[in-house]
Design brief:
- By secondary structure, the chain is α/β, with parallel strands linked by helices.
- The chain is built from 14 helices and 8 strands.
- Helix 2 packs across helix 10, helix 3 packs parallel to helix 4 and helix 8 packs parallel to helix 10.
- It binds S-adenosylmethionine and iron/sulfur cluster (SF4).
- The site of S-adenosylmethionine (SAM) has 19 residues, from loops.
């Protein structure tokens, strides 16, 4: 059995480079056992609402970047968001995830009011994923009752990060500092990375995984990088290099390895089987993710008319499904695995006992 202490850089790079399928099956089996022992068999459902696709940022990888003029922009109204919250309750979800581009049309007070209403009118936990907002915004939303915040650090390689995620003029982009602030504010903290982003080496992805443990994350989101033609990384105008043979591939197999290793470094974390993974394997990607470390899925509640414009990457899985189809599909998949659908908000890794 691998102890957490034995998990170091060498261990990580060794597994990331492993291509023997029998050995990989051992890794996946171990991750599944660790998942079962620490977070059980329940699969928790988080209802995702993509509340706005406006974004001030110029991320080299994402279709929502400010300069992409080919998508039509939307911001949902407070009433529409609350209708989604009620739908989440009707479907039995324990959590509402509000995600958007970094959109300052979403003002501090407007969002605080929505969070307060969801928290008083429903039993839902509220997760926010709204980008690098100022401390005062994060504080106000925490006071309004928001429980969790998701902010992927994307890569722990500072030079690569700067290249693919340019800072706004006069404002450094330090996602690690924001993650520490979120923890200090009492949020459950989620982060993660994309897998196979151009310029990502095996050593840097291995370091990312060790950062998950260092940050003691409550939630970990990992998924393959999927090129979008309307972005500098997707159209090839930005092509960060790595030394020969060092580039991590953005494949399905690599995603499973990272999911499994994330479960080993953070046994109690909530880890979703992501839509990006399902995009690579529509038929069974979600299930395989759940069998190789994940314990969460995020059915999409965004109204269909908006959802098609939340195109982070092309051919996104389930982009045309209604909330009700998505709900039925997730139940069917979870039950097909012999797992149960989680009830309520789900476990809190840094809960009452504070044990890790
Ligand atoms: N704007 C917020 C932020 O950046 O944290 C939240 C929304 S953003 C669309 C959510 C995540 O999508 C990012 O953290 C990034 O990892 C992922 N993402 C963006 N473009 C992607 C791509 N081309 N392939 C895979 N994942 C992508
Ligand atoms: Fe905006 Fe987030 Fe996309 Fe970057 S990843 S362009 S911050 S939505």
């Amino acid at each position: 059995m691998i102890g957490r202490g034995g998990i170091n850089l060498e261990f990580m790079t060794g597994w990331l480079r492993e291509d023997n399928s029998a050995r990989l099956e051992e890794l996946y089996k171990l991750a599944d056992e660790v998942r079962q022992r620490h977070v059980g068999d329940a699969v928790h459902l988080r209802g995702l609402v993509e509340i706005s696709n406006y974004c001030v940022r110029q991320c080299g990888y994402c279709g929502l970047r400010f300069e992409n003029r080919r998508i039509s922009r939307y911001r949902m109204s407070a009433d529409e968001i609350l209708a989604c919250a009620r739908e989440a309750v009707a479907y039995g979800y324990g959590t509402l995830v509000l995600q958007s581009g970094e959109d300052y049309g979403i003002t501090r007070d407007w969002l605080a009011d929505i969070v307060r209403r969801v928290k008083t009118e429903t039993p839902l936990a509220v997760t926010l994923s709204l980008g690098e907002r100022p401390f005062e915004d994060l504080e106000a939303w925490s006071r309004a009752g928001a429980d969790r915040y998701l902010l992927r650090f994307e890569t722990s390689d500072p030079a690569l990060y700067e290249l693919i995620h340019p800072a706004l003029p006069g404002r450094a982009s330090d996602r690690f500092a924001i993650l520490r602030s979120l923890r200090a504010l009492g949020y459950e903290v989620g982060s993660g990375v994309m897998i196979g982003i151009p310029g990502q080496s095996y050593a840097s992805l291995a370091r990312d995984l060790l950062w998950f443990r260092e940050l003691d994350l409550d939630m970990i989101g990992v998924g393959p990088y999927l090129p979008h033609p309307a972005t500098p990384l997707g159209d090839g105008s930005l092509a960060p290099g790595t030394a020969g043979g060092e580039q991590v591939p953005n494949t399905e197999e690599m995603t499973y390895k990272v999911l499994a290793l994330a479960r080993l470094v953070c046994p109690e974390a909530n880890i979703p089987s992501t839509t990006a993974l399902a995009t690579l394997n529509l038929e069974s990607g979600r299930e395989l993710g759940l069998q190789r470390g994940a314990n969460v899925v995020m059915p999409n509640l965004t109204p269909a008319a908006y959802r098609i414009n939340y195109e982070i990457y092309p051919a996104k899985a389930c982009i045309k499904e209604t909330a009700s189809a998505c709900h039925a599909c997730m139940h069917w998949r979870i039950e097909g695995l012999g797992r149960e659908v989680g009830k309520g908000q789900g476990p809190r890794p840094h809960g009452e006992t504070g044990v890790d």
